[in-house]
Amino acid sequence: MKLVYCDIKVVQDLHNEGVKRKAEPDYELLPKDHDLIRTVLPREGTVLKNEMIRLSPSMPAISTTDLLWNWTEDPTMQSIIFKATLDTKNVTKLCDWVLCNSFYELDPWFCDLIPIKSLPVGPLLSSVLPGGTIGSLWQEDSTCISWLDHQPARSVIYVAFGSLATFSQRQFDELAAGLQLAATPFIWVIRPDFMKGSTRNQDEFRDGVAHCGKRVSWAPQQKVLGHPSVACFLSHCGWNSIMDGLSVGVPFLCWPQFADQFFNKHLICDVRRVGLDLERDENGIVTRDEIKSKVKKLLDGDTTIILN
Asked: Which domains does the chain possess?
């Protein structure tokens, strides 16, 4: 959730301090006149150099290809997202404080670089709210919790791609086959609008995995991730999902789809080393063999992963 420009103006007109809440990574707020950013980005945001950059001596290097607007090769879309990022920064100039759904220990270098008063107040979890629930676009299927109760400890893969990502039929089939080949219990969240076009194989998939997996249209994610039967989180790396997983110490299998999710994957896999990246082939597909391989690597105790 964000407070848009008019909200901040109303607050200012009432002579109160302006406060903005952010649900995205802190790096969106970095100064766009930073010397390194100027050397790789023109005004419209198109990357001039594909390289690793380091915005301060204390922070890890990041790739220019992981910047928020570079997930798409469409120049028009890049320009739109870049402008929206600048608008976010401009709104923060009207604020006295920016509240971020993050915590200082996760990315202190970004918190220190932001040229405004930022306050990491995360992770913001529904478990600390009265009743422990939050609003959702879909009805949560709580039967997955009772299903988890019957699974061995640290045995289940939780698969969820947030509220916006969609899959082609081919990619859906590869993921379904990969989960079956991994021969590991799983919960897969498949929204009603998750598939592009035909959903012809979903019923066949559900019948084929009934013995080892559970499919739900939406899940109480924080409760699922906090369950002792869950071993890892196969995620699109949306920021809220990152917060949910990190808060309970669950390792990630990272499959970013768009926007800031590629940078979030870098933070999880390369900086904090609490996850593995699922790599696409030359056709942009994550294959069943890649899924099987990375699941096995993570669950067998990959020594490059830091586990709690």
From this structure: 5-122 (no CATH), 130-299 (3.40.50.2000)
CB neighbours of 260 closer than 8 A, spacing ≥ 6? Answer: 24, 25, 28, 68, 239
pLDDT score of 308 more than 60: no
User: For residues 68 and 39, what is the distance between their CA atoms, to the nearest angstrom?
Assistant: 17
Q: Work out the average pLDDT over 35-49.
A: 59
Instruction: Name beta bridge partners: 100.
Output: 22, 120
Model confidence pLDDT, tens digit, residues 69-90: 777 777 787 778 778 777 777 7
- Alpha-carbon distance of 142 to 140, in angstroms, equals 6
Phi-psi region of 162 (alpha: psi -120 to 50; beta: other; left: phi over 0): left
The position carrying tokens 């559900």 is 206
Cis peptide upstream of residue 123 (ω within 30 degrees of 0): yes
Q: Measuring CA to CA, which residue among 222, 211, 167, 220 is closest to residue 186?
A: 211
Whether the predicted pLDDT of 159 surpasses 60: yes
Hey, which residues does 21 pair with through a beta bridge?
99
Q: Are 228 and 145 in contact (CB under 8 A)?
A: no
Higher pLDDT, 103 or 54: 103
Predicted structure pTM score: 0.82
Tokens coding 30: 């970095």
b/e 47-71 (16+ beta carbons within 10 angstroms → b): beeeeebebeeebeebbbebbbbbb
Q: How far apart are CA 179 and CA 176, in angstroms?
A: 5
